Amino acid sequence: MKRILIVKVTSLGDIVETLPVVADLRRAFPSAKIDWAADAAFADIIRWNPGVDRVLSAPLRKFKKARSWNDLKEIGASIGELRAEKYDVIVDIHGVYKSAIIAFIARGRRRYGYLNQDLGERGAAFAYNARFGPRPLTDAWRGMRVSVADALGYRLEDPPDFNIRLPAPTRELNIPRDARIAMLFHATSADVKKWPQSHWGEVGRWLTARGYSIALPWGTEREQDEARAIAALVPGATVLPKLSVVECAHWIQASELVVGADTGLVHLAHALQRRTVMLFAATSREHFGVNDPGRSVSIGEEGAPPDVPQVLAAIESVTNSPQKPVPHSAESGATVR
User: Positions of the region Disordered (predicted)?
Assistant: First the structure.
């Protein structure tokens, strides 16, 4: 096996949870070149993994929103770049039309995709000349790893290796180095995933009483207003300035605890091996949650969000366990396995 293409296009949490596939392939095929095709919005996150040789990206989301001619030209250029190499195998572990089109356009002898019943969009089946086995009875993240391992004939090794190396921030982030930071990710992509502000206030006050410094990130003006409302309920809480994804990753890396809704940045906290509690209210915890006993736990369920006592118990379950060592270099970024 000389060259492999991974196709996983979006979104932040899915991209993060796919990173262990790279380490799996590296162990199985040490000399192979591994490329990854994704939406340009998430390309930098893939570049944080030194196991990826080339990231192929196009502004698909951006073009869908703005219909810009420049974005269309970038997409056209990306097609040429995609076809510049011939792959021994292409693994589409996304399974929707846009990922199938990428897999079909790329030059490769074998194009693997999910069985029809496991595809996110059944029409994607046109792109494949080989299929993964039936979806394994496990969460979505391990399921991707199992599917690729079974198809390419190697043995899966645990635990998952995210192999993230953060680039140095381009500005001073003023992260307090002597504080026990707890980041509360209250913002979500959909209102049905939200947890009540009063609940966040209770959790924030409980953590403050135990010596934590509460940090509240946000991404939009509405989320900033929500962060300020929660901060008003938690004396001493800090509403952070607007951060890029890599800047937020550095704040996560410096934190002792992350509590948040089902969002990509909380998946990133799990990948960065922070003590993490993920709250579910509108999606499947069993399918999309994070779990690393003693470090990460998911609670709640679709239609049944957790209450405050459940969240506090979950926090205690991850904070009362001995912390596993995580190598960190403040000057050159963080390497996490």
Answer: 317-337
Q: Alpha carbon 327 to chain centroid distance?
A: 20
- What pLDDT, in 10s, does the model give residues 79-129? 999 999 999 999 999 999 999 999 999 999 999 999 999 999 999 999 999
- CA 89, CA 293: separation in Å to the nearest integer? 34
Find the Cα–Cα–Cα–Cα dihedral 324, 329, 333, 337, rounded to 10°: -30
Beta-bridge mates of residue 86: 107
Residue 330: how many other CB atoms lie within 10 Å: 12
Contact 7, 91 (CB under 8 A): yes
Alpha-carbon distance 216 to 230, whole Å?
8
Tokens of 203: 């959790």
Q: Is 261 exposed, middle or buried (0-12, 13-18, 19+ CB in 10 A)?
A: buried
pLDDT at 328 over 90: no
**C-alpha to C-alpha distance for 171 and 46, rounded to whole angstroms:** 21
Q: How far apart are CA 327 and CA 221, in angstroms?
A: 35
Q: Tens digit of pLDDT for each residue in 253-312? A: 999 999 999 999 999 999 999 999 999 999 999 999 999 999 999 999 999 999 999 999
C-alpha 293 chain-centroid distance = 19
pTM score, whole prediction: 0.93
Contacts 24+ apart (CB under 8 A), 73-80: 74/40, 79/105
Gap between the Cα atoms of 188 and 192, Å rounded:
9
- Split at pLDDT 50, 70, 90, the class of 59 is low
Confidence at residue 1, expressed as pLDDT on a 0 to 100 scale = 87
**Average pLDDT, integer, range 241-255:** 97
Contact 127/113 with Cβ under 8 angstroms? yes
Domains, the chain, with CATH or none: 3-165 (3.40.50.2000), 180-336 (3.40.50.2000)
